[in-house]
Amino acid sequence: MKNEKSKYQLILLLLLLIFIIPSNSHAQKFENLVLTPPMGWNSWNYFACNVNEELIKKTVDVIVSSGLKDAGYIYINIDDCWHGKRDSLGFIHPNQERFPSGMKALSDYVHSKGLKLGIYSCAGSKTCAGYPGSRGHEYQDAITYASWGIDYLKYDWCNTENLNAIGAYTTMRDAIYSAGRPIVFSICEWGVSKPWEWGRNIGHLWRTTGDITAHFDSVVNHGTWSSFGVMQIIDKQDGLRVFAGPGHWNDPDMLEVGNGMSYSEDRAHFSMWCMLAAPLIAGNDISTMSKETVEILTNKEAIAVNQDSLGIQGYKYSKKNDLEIWFKPLSKDEWAVCFLNRRKTTENIDFLWENNSITDSFSKRDANFSKTVYTIRNLWTKKNIGTTAKSFTTQIESHDVVFLKLTPIKRK
Ligand code: GLA
Fold it and tell me: Which of 13, 79, 152, 333 has a CA positioned 20 to 30 A from the CA of residue 213?
């Protein structure tokens, strides 16, 4: 049996060398994937290295039963630490104790529920948690993932001494293309060499920052590296919207909703990820999440802002006393507007639409409130709250948002 298996792997390796590697001269990324920001779940933010097939299957079941699947969360992504060892021919295998049924059986399970399976590797010799990385095994790993039925690969940047990021990510892109299975390629290089400038033809999304942490407004120092609160991550998105669009997204990291911030902080975090057209990859324990967490993650009207077909990332229109106003153009001449209160105190808003002319030179769209009146929909209370003909006055709690959608009704 073992002999049979290694014979099979040897044949695969030969095929790889003869046909696949030389045939990639026209390699490219798979197009027509994630034309709206990817949505799903990833194990890292809550479970870190504690991953196994039972957890993934349980998560899949609750993604379906809680309504997350219906809301659009499709990719179930296993992050670091699933790895076992490479065999004598260099093929990677999952850790047998954690994934006794193997990855193909797991992807069959995930696919049978109408979902997709993602996996994690690293461009370096080892992953960030010290497991085998893909360096020198890119084509073997890509063909292995394809044979397992993997749909999404997050590709990290630890232990990459002397590697060039563009080269390393291009090699993996080519390997994925050659393996022939459309796999979403998620570049996780933390923004170090400005992946937004080169990532568009290589991957489908690229991390713009170091790791997120479940804090609203602070940096956590881990000695050799730091992780960032939601506000710090948002500030690092300045100037990046021009690089994003359908099939190529800025990735400000996975969601921390349900991981310890307050309800309003979670809601603000989620709303801003919708405004940023960011991937919505939940990072909490789905099987024990509260009603409030489900309510945030499945707010379909908020998600519709994120998933709008134009795929235009929102922008900060103004900032005063840590009260920010963000605008995002939507299809059908609609707009999303998000008032973000970063302060520790409640703030009053008195916003006279007519005094504000919204001109977005990047998307070439504008909202001229003295010419066009819009109805206003509050996306958290899910109520229509009047029109832009009158000034908008409300209170906004500390670390919270007022998240609105504007729909044009009449031209004056
Ligand atoms: C890096 C990534 C994280 C996570 C860990 C896993 O820190 O940025 O998102 O994948 O590695 O070790």
Answer: 152
Residue 4: what pLDDT? 60
Ligand 1 center to 211 CA (angstroms):
7
Q: Mutate which of 43, 79, 122, 206 to test ligand 1's pocket (most atoms within 8 Å of Cβ)?
A: 79
d(CA 24, CA 258): 43
**Is 343 in contact with 398 (CB distance < 8 Å)?**
yes
* Residue 287 shares a structural domain with residue 319: no
**Within a domain: residue 225?**
yes
Structure tokens given for 62:
């609750």
Do residues 185 and 153 make contact, with C-beta atoms less than 8 angstroms apart?
yes
Give how many domains the chain has, as a whole number: 2
Identify whether residues 267 and 404 lie together within a single domain: no
Measured from CB, residues less than 6 Å from any atom of ligand 1 are 44, 79-80, 127-129, 156, 188, 211
Q: From the centroid of its chain, how far is CA 15?
A: 34
156 and 271, same domain (yes or no) = yes
Q: What is the DSSP pairing of strand 365-368 with strand 392-396?
A: unpaired
Q: How confident is the model at residue 410 (pLDDT cuts 50, 70, 90)?
A: low
Query: Considering 273, 306, 339, which residue would you say is the last residue of a domain?
Result: 306
- For residue 168, is it within any domain? yes
Q: What residues make up the domain containing 328?
A: 315-411
In a shared domain, residues 295 and 333: no
Q: Relative to the CA of 154, which ligand 1 atom is closest?
A: 10
Same domain, yes or no: 190 and 213: yes
Determine the Cα–Cα distance for residues 123 and 155; give it in Å rounded to an integer: 6
Structure tokens at 275: 């405004």
Domain end, chosen from 252, 277, 306, is at 306
Do 158 and 135 share a structural domain?
A: yes
The token pair that represents 256 in the structure block: 């921390």
Q: Are residues 274 and 174 in the same domain?
A: yes
Is residue 385 in some structural domain?
Answer: yes
Given the structure tokens 């709303």, which residue do they identify?
271
- Is residue 284's pLDDT more than 50? yes
Number of H helices, E strands in the chain: 12, 22
Query: Could you give the residue numbers annotated as active site?
Result: 156, 211
Q: What is the rounded CA–CA span in Å between residue 241 and residue 165? A: 21
Q: Residue of the nearest CA to atom 8 in ligand 1?
A: 211
Residue 363 — very low, low, confident or very high, per pLDDT cuts 50/70/90?
very high
Residues 6+ apart with CB under 8 A from 400: 264, 265, 267, 268, 341
